[in-house]
Design goal:
CATH superfamily of the largest domain: HUPs
Oligomer: single chain
Number of strands: 17
Strand content: 15-25%
CATH class of the largest domain: Alpha Beta
Structural class: alpha/beta
CATH architecture of the largest domain: 3-Layer(aba) Sandwich
CATH topology of the largest domain: Rossmann fold
Shape: globular
């Protein structure tokens, strides 16, 4: 009867301890099978590596892509004298049936029927080991079998990320080899130390990327129409490309058929959709490429190598999730540096109103929903559908109170005692930040992490000039009147503190910034 060692785990890094431990199990008869026989190398013991989260990469929890993990495992097996089978296991929602899911993956991918009668499970994670134990599998605890316990692979990987040279003494030569050949040590440091991207590869844990992808697709025609005439053929890059909807339209332009179309996206969910589209033949241009990068982590392209850079609804995220102006300036400088002389950066984003610090009065509807005595302090602890339902039931005035609790950029406001409870005084920029976000109930906890009105038009002009860009006359702020008609005017009104009505200010900006030819 064949004998197996099932070794489930993410396996981003392999250690010398694992090699010694698995070799002893597989060849030295260090464990008993349930029927009392000894499992030895003569029995043809096979180590089955169930590589979990195999469809994830470039995230803090899963920095190394599956194919590199598989390569290291195969190299490890040769050097350790192990017979191995490597099986990818895609990430699943949290379930107490994880063990069964993994066993079914092994059966489907490798045709192996692993049972308690022919398999020992090697696992050092107590919660995971308990799932297999409940199914009757004998357990070998790997690092948990030893006292004191040696460094676990993830701890060694974190040493690498922290530039602790001791990781090389603990990592197996197979990992050192593959990491060196494919520069995975640099990748791990970059991803694990990323100040913006979360464990699962997104900007915030609460963001619904399906909703975002749909919104990007719906707006793509409008965005492309606004920038199309300013695009310079050659190497065209869309930074923060979402699901690639704008590049799809660029792909259809006959004038750009000889251009390289390059998408850069940080969110794993959206990047994977781009790759899927390319695999499905959505793009006709053979020179379409996608990269998963965080632009805050440093330069993405070589100096003077890009003809056109496009960014849509990105710069306010850099401002919000980074160090505000310092991070934004670094980003603009990076764009300038990678732009060829005469090349162009086209940026479309939200924009703060002129005089955003001016105190204004904001009248909000109190009759379009409930008006609780106080806002909830625990929205982040609720399921997403309950968050959306709670917000949908609030009046516009009550949503302001809730916004003030959840918004990451504190602002002050003062209720005006006019007998209605509907009027407050606050800075104009804070008023517009609330009004342009108040209807995003599906992604409220994500949207309240971002500031829309951090910069006004004068700030943008000064920043671009400081970096060295020339501002094309086509640039300027503007007001999205659809938002005014459908989102603002029905439930809100602006006035001076003296009560004089104010027109709605600008909401967006289009920047066409060119690098001078002689630079």
């Amino acid at each position: 009867m064949p004998r197996y060692l099932l070794f489930p785990g993410r396996h981003h890094l392999l250690t010398r301890f694992q090699a010694d431990y698995l070799h002893r199990l597989a060849t030295a008869g260090d464990h008993d099978t349930p029927d009392g026989d000894r499992a030895t190398g003569d029995d043809g013991v096979t180590v089955v590596w169930a590589v979990t989260s195999a469809n994830h990469e470039n995230t803090r929890r899963n920095p190394v892509p599956y194919h590199r993990r598989e390569a290291a495992i195969e190299r490890f097996s040769v050097l350790a004298g192990l017979r191995s089978v490597v099986v990818p296991v895609f990430d699943t929602a949290e379930t107490d049936r994880f063990a069964e899911v993994t066993l079914k993956n092994v059966a489907a991918a490798a045709g192996l029927d692993l049972t308690p009668a022919n398999t020992v499970v090697a696992c050092s994670t107590p919660q995971v080991a308990a799932m297999y134990a409940r199914l009757g599998f004998p357990i070998a605890g790997v690092e948990a079998d030893v006292d004191p316990a040696p460094a676990r692979p993830w701890d060694v990987l974190l040493r690498l990320a922290a530039d602790d040279p001791s990781w090389r003494e603990l990592a197996h030569p197979a990992t050192l080899d593959v990491y060196s050949r494919y520069r995975l040590d640099d990748l791990v440091r970059s991803v694990v130390n990323d100040p913006v991207v979360g464990d699962e590869g997104g900007l915030t844990a609460t963001r619904d990327y399906r909703t975002y992808a749909e919104a990007f697709a719906d707006a793509a025609q409008r965005k492309w129409a606004a920038v199309r005439e300013h695009v310079r053929p050659g190497r065209i890059v869309d930074v923060g490309c979402g699901a690639g909807a704008v590049l799809e339209l660029a792909d259809r332009e006959p004038a750009l058929r000889e251009s390289d179309l390059i998408g850069v996206e940080v969110a794993r969910h959206l990047y994977e959709e781009c790759v899927h589209k390319k695999a499905q033949g959505v793009f006709t241009n053979p020179n379409v490429f996608f990269y998963r990068r965080n632009v805050l982590g440093g330069a993405v392209f070589a100096p003077r190598s890009v003809d056109t850079t496009m960014t849509f609804a990105l710069t306010h995220e850099i401002w919000s999730y980074g160090d505000r102006m310092a991070s934004l300036r670094r980003f603009v400088q990076a764009i300038y540096d990678h732009t060829v002389p005469g090349g162009v950066w086209i940026n479309s984003d939200v924009c703060g109103p002129d005089g955003r610090d001016l105190t204004v009065r904001l009248r909000l509807s109190t009759t379009d929903g409930a008006n609780p005595a106080r806002p909830r302090e625990d929205l982040a602890s609720l399921p997403a559908d309950q968050v959306a339902a709670h917000l949908a039931g609030l009046s516009t005035r009550a949503r302001l109170d809730q916004f003030a609790v959840d918004y990451r950029f504190p602002f002050g406001f003062r209720p005006v005692d006019d007998g209605t409870g509907a009027v407050v005084e606050l800075p104009l920029g804070a008023a517009m930040d609330f009004l342009t976000r108040k209807d995003y109930t599906d992604n409220w906890l994500s949207e309240t992490q971002e500031e829309f009105c951090g910069l006004e038009w004068a700030d943008w002009k000064a920043l671009l000039a400081d970096v060295g860009f020339e501002v094309d006359p086509a640039s300027g702020p503007y007001r999205n009147d659809w938002i005014v008609t459908h989102r603002l005017a029905p439930t809100a009104a602006l006035s001076t503190v003296e009560g004089a009505p104010l027109d709605w200010p600008v909401t967006h900006v289009l920047l066409v910034a060119r690098r001078p030819v002689n630079t």
